[in-house]
User: What shape does this take?
Amino acid sequence: MTAQHAVFGHPITHSRSPFIHAAFAQAEGIALHYRAIDADLETFPAALQAFFADGGRAANVTLPLKEAAFALCASHGHAAQRAGAVNTLIWREQHWHGENTDGSGLVRDLTSRHGLDLRGCRVLLLGAGGAARGVAPALLDAGIDELVVANRTASRADALVDAMGEPGRVISAYWEALDEQGDFEIILNATSAAHGTTPPPKLPSSLVNSRTSAVDLNYGAAAVPFLAWANAAGCRKQIDGLGMLVEQAAEAFHLWHGRHPDTDPVYAQLRAQLL
Assistant: This one.
């Protein structure tokens, strides 16, 4: 019987997840049907229920549903519990169980594919939504020195900082006062500004030093504005979210099927499609 899988989000037509999981399944010899389902915060619970009624027992969740997915789960893995956000759903023991593979996927991409050493780094995290919550714990576990969280709604940044439970190591900053924060080895954009009509806020060039790498969790056209700023500001590396997308998908695939697929061929195919 072909397993039913899906990715939920809004918008979702841009998602590469169906391609990625189909490629993983083919390489691993697993029969898999994986589709994209458009659902916003209002329609997501009903859409998930309909997916389950159709035989769905495993799914991914993307913007803007990761925190809503957390609330719908009766149990959570450690990473999801700490993040307060879920990107991977598994039907287990008569309920939805939530995991979060965003952080481990990001760290694997940055360290293994791009050769970054995160230990001792000062990191600026732009955004405080589900994507930011998903990666913050993994960055701390990877040995960064300090995490500064900036969000246009300051209370959201404060809530993320409180959730991490490491005062002094994780702090919030006002977006309007980023020019007072000094420089960073990594500037990570976890906002969804480029997906909407609002242009991303301007950032001061004083955030950049000679070793700064800029990382956008978006990929494709959505990553262009931030990475263009990073290039103009002189960042040493400009990295989009394509590698993280593939790596977090591989982590989810492993949770569902017990196998960790080779990610390099799929990453290469997707990168060629974006060129």
Remarks:
- The chain has two domains: 3-101+246-263, 103-242.
